[in-house]
Design goal:
By secondary structure, this protein is α/β, with parallel strands linked by helices. It folds into two domains: 135 residues, Aspartate Aminotransferase, domain 1, CATH 3.90.1150; 234 residues, Type I PLP-dependent aspartate aminotransferase-like (Major domain) (Aspartate Aminotransferase, domain 2). It has 13 helices and twelve strands. Strands 2-8-7-6-5-3-4 form a seven-stranded mixed sheet, with helices on both faces. β3, α5 and β4 form a beta-alpha-beta unit. The longest helix has 21 residues. Bound molecules: pyridoxal-5'-phosphate (PLP). Pyridoxal-5'-phosphate binds next to α4.
Length: 380
């Protein structure tokens, strides 16, 4: 008899984002607007700290949850954004990816449901399934990617254990309105479930009032899990550094998962992480805002409807009316126009494509010109 594997893996899809970025890489001259990969470098002051720590021999096992001085710096940084976390309840993780893994593994029992407002980053669905939970998709397309309170209430069942919120969002770039946040808070309060706040794009917000969920509803602190990452605002995707914070009980349980999954993040990256927290993200934000505006102007010129992204570095235009599925659109854009995007179907958002404007401005402008030519040709 063949040996079986963990059947929770059977329904897990491999990331479509990677498939389309690989297709782009295999196509000579193709411009890739696929990955959420910052075009800038990690700031020099951050990079230099690693060399210093290696020279000083900071190369042994650090504390599991991260050095106390880094966890204190994270809490001070969060406090400036209105988020109250205690250093004892923060774990430094291998990016937001591991933070979300710890959260799901800790919160879910088999059969527990997690509401995922969609379109959404695929990771949530996969991690829920790995924990033998049930992802419940809440389609936000009819409400311009905001949370419709009555749709949310319809998604809640006695098995609802958590909701994931991402603001600004991947793939839509949308920032949750105060009404959307209120709807989530009210439902969490009434029906008693956890709110997992994926704040990885929190620093890349172009709207004046971009508040964190946990800052708005401090009374829900015991139900909230805060996930964040060094990856996007400081262009540190390859460092694999993030954090997760929660109330005491949840944090203590997550720390077990973290300990058995990865033990700790590298010792010699942790002073550099403190350095990053002290490094102003305004220049990054300003350059992304400029590229966002270039992208919006180009999409308007192409006549592709688009809900204005208030943050992150993605646009999610509609391609309805062009007669192609999002997958066909992206495959043909690569072969016929030499520009790569990601199909909306990879995020539960068929009828749209995701365009990442994280790349440098010159590449972006050329990619947008190619896209415009492709859309014109489709319409002709
Ligand atoms: C919404 C969202 N959450 C989490 C992650 C994972 O980030 P990290 O690089 O910190 O693992 C990403 C990466 O693209 C993301 O877009």
């Amino acid at each position: 008899m063949p040996l079986s594997l963990n059947s929770a893996l059977d329904d897990l899809k491999l990331s479509g984002i990677r498939r389309f970025s690989s297709l782009a890489a295999q196509t000579p001259g193709c411009i890739s607007l696929t990955l959420g990969e910052p075009g800038e470098e990690t700031p020099a002051n951050v990079r230099v700290r690693v060399g210093e720590d290696l020279d000083h021999g900071l190369t042994h096992y650090p504390p599991n949850n991260g050095f106390p001085w880094l966890r204190e710096a994270i809490c001070a940084w969060e406090a400036k954004r209105g988020v109250t976390l205690s250093p004892g309840n923060v774990i430094v993780t291998d990016g937001a990816t591991e933070a979300l893994f710890c959260a799901m593994t800790t919160l879910l029992n088999p059969g527990d449901e997690v509401i995922i407002p969609a379109p959404a980053f695929l990771l949530y669905d996969s991690l829920v399934r790995l924990s033998r939970g049930i992802p419940v998709e809440l389609d936000t397309t009819p409400s311009d990617f905001q949370t419709d309170p009555s749709a949310l209430l319809r998604a809640i069942t006695p098995r609802t254990k958590a909701i994931v919120i991402t603001s600004p969002n991947n793939p839509t770039g949308c920032v949750l309105s105060r009404q959307s946040m209120d709807a989530v808070a009210e439902a969490a309060r009434m029906h008693s479930f956890y709110v997992i706040c994926d704040d990885v794009y929190g620093e890349l917000c172009y709207e004046p009032d971009c508040r964190r969920f946990s800052a708005l509803y401090p009374e829900l602190a015991e139900q909230v899990v805060v996930v964040n990452s060094f990856s996007k605002p400081w262009a540190m995707t390859g460092w694999r550094l993030g954090w997760v914070g929660a109330g005491e009980k949840v944090a203590a349980a997550m720390s077990k998962v973290h300990q058995y999954a990865v033990s700790s993040v590298p010792a010699f990256l942790q002073h550099a992480a403190v350095e990053a927290l002290g490094t102003d993200t305004t220049p990054m934000r300003d350059s992304y805002r400029k590229r966002r505006d270039i992208t919006l102007g180009a999409l308007a010129g192409m006549g592709l409807p688009n809900v204005t992204p208030g943050g992150a570095f993605y646009a999610f235009p509609s391609i309805e009316g062009l007669g192609l599925s999002s997958e066909e659109f992206c495959e043909r854009a690569i072969t016929e126009a030499g520009v790569a995007l990601v199909p909306g179907s990879c995020f539960g958002g068929e009828g749209h494509v995701r365009l990442s404007y994280a790349t440098d401005e010159k590449t972006l402008v050329t990619g947008l010109e190619r896209l415009a030519g492709f859309v014109d040709a489709l319409r002709a």
